[in-house]
Design goal:
Elements: H1 2-5, H2 13-102, E1 105-114, E2 119-127, H3 130-143, E3 148-159, E4 162-174
Length: 178
């Protein structure tokens, strides 16, 4: 009989339901928290993707503007090469001959580009005495009438023990409109 005393009386449905309710409540709470966490992650991903989409749209606009500028530069470069071949051939040949006659050394030729009023500017740097550089300016502008000298910049530099004078001539021509 001892064994029968250890048997517990049967539980009613109400007691079983209460017991089940306490075991289901933590499961429901756990599911709710996991769903809330997942929803938060989805919302964060959505906001991040939205920002990336806006950023990529701005980047596409920037790329389009960059490509447009590259095309304009390529067109300008093509026009520049055509103009420089036509216009600078005579000028450089003349400057080279005059430098040889005046005992000047041609150091640099650098195109500056076309200004807003279709004026093409280049810089030619020569090295030599002041009077010879001044004679070069006179020859180019007054005698041969190849160009207009906008300005001349003189700079003394020291090469070893000797000082030399460099003259940078800013040469301009008006481009012919086609």
């Amino acid at each position: 009989m001892n064994d029968l005393s250890k048997i517990k009386p049967p539980r009613s449905y109400r007691q079983q339901l209460k017991l089940l309710l306490w075991s289901i409540a933590p499961l429901l709470l756990l599911c709710y928290l996991l769903a809330f966490k997942k929803t938060g992650a989805v919302v964060r991903d959505y906001k991040k993707n939205l920002q990336l989409q806006q950023h990529s749209a701005a980047l596409e606009d920037s790329v389009a503007a960059f490509e447009k500028k590259q095309a304009a530069i390529a067109e300008w470069k093509k026009q520049y090469l055509a103009d420089s071949a036509r216009m600078d051939g005579r000028l450089l040949a003349s400057v080279n001959n005059l430098c040889n006659e005046l005992e000047l050394e041609l150091k640099e030729y650098k195109p500056m580009g076309i200004g807003s009023q279709d004026i093409w500017t280049r810089v030619i740097t020569v090295e030599g005495p002041f009077h010879n550089i001044l004679s070069l300016v006179y020859q180019l502008e007054q005698k041969e009438r190849l160009c207009r000298i906008a300005s001349v910049k003189y700079q003394k530099t020291k090469e070893g023990e000797a000082e030399v004078l460099n003259g940078s001539l800013y040469i301009q021509n008006v481009l012919e409109k086609k």
